[in-house]
Amino acid sequence: MRIFDPHIHMTSRTTDDYERMAAAGVRAVVEPAFWLGQPRTSAASFTDYFDSLIGWEPFRAGQFGVRHFATIALNPKEANDPRCRPVLDLLPRYLDKDAVVAVGEIGYDSMTPEEDEAFAAQLALAVAYDLPALVHTPHRDKARGCERTLAVVAESGIDAGRVVVDHLNEVTVKLVRDSGCWLGFSIYPDTKMTPQRMVELLREYGTERMLVNSAADWGRSDPLLTRATGEAMLAAGFSDDDVDKVLWRNPVEFYGQSGRLDLSDVDAAAAVDPQTGNSILRGGS
Ligand SMILES: [Zn+2]
């Protein structure tokens, strides 16, 4: 099973995670810029963070045979902090980089006027830089947050097929399905979405435009829940090809729209033994 985790915060994870992910079939990840838990007090703090997302973290991932890409943005929560707003002026420098495959995470946290403004400004940047956008939806008041999100996306003029609306569940899936945007689902140990519930949604809505991620971060989360979802799909009667579409080809197609998703070295990278770092030949697996 080859797996592309389209949303995971590896900065917050250990090398044990990289080892287990590589062993489970995770060959590529996208790490969106997000809130680190501790509020940042200046834009300079973001510069170091963004640099690590396109420098240090891809290097760390590469040691385990995992290809690492990033999305860059001012996250919804810190969009409310006036000390962080100047980050918006730093973004163009990063949106030009080859390792950056989308603008994100953008969207709403508490749906404040400040978030409105940062969200719209960053969708405009996605259009200007011809990049897809990764849109976070709020964890509270989900249906209303999702409706408003889709209205702002439509208003921005960005092609719906270049937007993924993330952290969906049974309440919001249909709304996003009908909008033409891609659908992101974060599989969590005890909140958001479970592998079993995900399988039910795939049964009902099919596999088109569906993205499954672990969204693993500094909170209680599990980077292997992408794999667990693939296993649950197989157990429910989905084919290997269905699993490959959801866990590999869909994220490749979505982020491939950036024109920067170079996966040419992934098969070679997957042939590096995560334990020893030695090159090994692994047949066609
Ligand atoms: Zn996230």
What is the secondary structure topology, with strand pairs?
Layout: E1 3-5, H1 15-24, E2 26-32, H2 43-54, H3 56-62, E3 67-72, H4 87-95, E4 100-107, H5 113-128, E5 133-136, H6 142-156, E6 163-165, H7 173-179, E7 182-186, H8 195-205, E8 210-213, H9 225-235, H10 240-256, H11 266-270
Parallel strand pairs: 1-2, 2-3, 3-4, 4-5, 5-6, 6-7, 7-8
Helix pairs in contact: 8-9, 9-10
This protein binds zinc ion (ZN).
Q: Which tags fit this structure?
A:
globular; binds zinc ion; 285 residues; single chain
Fraction in helix: 40-55%
What is the residue-mean pLDDT, rounded to a whole number?
93
- Unreliable segments (pLDDT under 50, ≥5 consecutive)? 281-285
Overall shape: it is globular
Number of helices: 11
Main sheet strand line-up: 1-2-3-4-5-6-7-8
**What are the distinct ligands in this entry?**
zinc ion
